[in-house]
Amino acid sequence: MAISPLPAPLQQLGGRRFSFYPPIRNVDHNEWLYRRSTWSEVVVVNNRSGVECVIPRALIGEVSFVEDPVVIVGLRRELEWREEAVRTYHRPVIELPVAVNQQGNVIPHPDYPAPVISIRLEPRDESRASLKLGVGLVLGAVGCLLAANIGRSYLHPQTAAGDDYAAVVRKIGAPASEHSVRTADGHMYRLLRYPNRNSVVVLYVAPDSALGVSQYIGAISPEGRVLNAVTLPDGTNAAPLLRSLPAF
Q: Percentage of residues in the chain with pLDDT exceeding 90?
């Protein structure tokens, strides 16, 4: 059966009109309605022209529910409507004009060669040391950036196979929201959403459990990318199962 994706910020608006900020370029009327959403995209329709626009979910920012005069939805990047699609807007590079003199003519090159200026070169050892220091600083900055990104999207490593709902909450905290989905083959999964970790914890609900006992099998990002997968009792990895889950 069809399963809805994770709620998009615009989904909370229902049928209310809203405006984007900054407005989408090349669109005259900045008034929209939410239409639908998928794992990675949100579809909106222009209230006047009826044109549908597909916007990546990652570019949807904060939603202001103060209607003055309409709800404002922030965009993380400036967008434009071009070639029947929404694209990221890139500001053109402005070329500086050529310098001119008071008579409006281009300043000519002098007829004599430029003066030679004595430049003192650094000793070879000092230059090599400076180069190593610069490379070390760059590599350190890149490493910190990678560590920050991994730490933001990856769940705490103490979450393990066999953890039930209570164990997951005890280890990484209560989820912001949760709901259950049933796949076409009849299996039930419990989904715990952690926006601050950019992760969705997936628990498998045992079919023969009258109490709905569930166990941790892995975690995925809101876009469906597998972040963590456990080894199942039959010795296989849960990653293919997580990737096969429908959008919710």
A: 21
Alpha carbon of residue 114 to chain centroid: 53
Rounded to an integer, what is the distance from CA 145 to the centroid of its chain? 16
C-alpha triplet 128, 134, 140: angle, nearest 5°: 135
Torsion, CA 248, CA 84, CA 33, CA 50, rounded to 10: -130
Q: In angstroms, rounded to a whole number, what is the distance separating the alpha carbons of residues 28 and 234?
A: 58
CB atoms within 10 A of CB 228: 21
Q: What is the pLDDT of residues 62-76, one digit of tens each?
A: 888 676 678 899 999
Can you tell me the distance from the alpha carbon of 153 to that of 145, in angstroms, rounded to the nearest whole number? 13
Please answer whether residues 205 and 180 qualify as being in contact, where contact means their C-beta atoms are separated by less than 8 angstroms. yes
Q: Which range has the worst mean pLDDT, 102-106, 172-176, 225-229?
A: 102-106
Domain ranges of the chain: 9-88, 165-243
**pLDDT tens across 226-236, in order?**
999 999 888 89
